[in-house]
Amino acid sequence: MLVQPMASLTDLALGLVTLYLVPRLPRDVEGARYWRAAFAWAAVTALMGALYHGFLIGVPQVGEVTWAVMSTMVVVVMSFLLAASVVQVLGRTRAIVFWPLRLLGVAAYAVLAATGHPGITAIMLCEGLTMACVIGLWVWAWLRRHPSGRLMLVAIGVSIAGALLRLVPGAATLVRLDPDSAYHIGQIVGMVLLFRAVARGGPPPLVGRGSSTA
């Protein structure tokens, strides 16, 4: 019997939906391989989450390790999201500028996870600058009429709203769900919108187009 049925099933749904979208992502947009990697890592993380909420959360030692691994995988997803955004908006030649930022964020979260403080709050603290960069890139792209700009910002906004349902005390009760389940459902909507935004983007980035499609 599942320990947290609703949280486990909604995480399973998130994982399966995201996994379904991976091979359907377009391959003719800049940064395509980074988008596929982001979706694939997100799918595996959600499927692990279904196992965690269903069975492992009741086994403290195993559950703690699993949670640390999953939360670290979320940071990896963020890395690919940033890489994909940079390449699609600015082109391959600009991507190298953002890698020091990623290394800093990953290193900071690794320290928190290793010292027993993994979780959504830690991710928000370590990845806040990364997410700000992603949002800034797509605002810049939207203002310059990038075909994916508007929908990408909507997708990011929905994902952030889903995270707030978990972080803000009492917020999930507004939709009559527990925080984890509300978060998972918000992420399902966010991933579908993100998929549509990626599919809408064309091969040419706004500046500094690379020599070939990623």
Short description:
By secondary structure, the protein is an all-alpha fold.
Provide the fold topology:
Layout: H1 5-21, H2 32-54, H3 60-90, H4 99-114, H5 120-143, H6 149-167, H7 179-200
Helix pairs in contact: 1-2, 1-7, 2-3, 3-4, 3-5, 4-5, 5-6, 6-7
Description:
With 214 residues, this protein is an all-alpha fold. The chain contains seven helices and no strands. The protein starts with a helix and ends in a 14-residue tail after the last helix. The chain crosses the membrane at residues 34-55, 67-89, 96-114, 120-143, 150-169. Keywords: Membrane, Transmembrane, Transmembrane helix. InterPro entries: DUF6962.
Radius of gyration, in angstroms, nearest whole number:
17 Å
Q: How would a crystallographer describe the biggest sheet? A: none
Helical content class: over 70%
Structural category: mainly alpha
The backbone outline, from C-alpha atoms, is: globular
Query: What is the number of E strands?
Result: 0
Average of per-residue pLDDT values: 84
Q: Runs with pLDDT <50, length 5+?
A: 204-214
Order of helices and strands: HHHHHHH
Terminal CA distance reads: 44 Å
Q: What's the number of helices?
A: 7
In total, how many domains does the architecture comprise? 1
Q: Roughly what fraction of the amino acids lie in strands?
A: under 5%
Keywords: Membrane, Transmembrane, Transmembrane helix
Transmembrane segments: 34-55, 67-89, 96-114, 120-143, 150-169
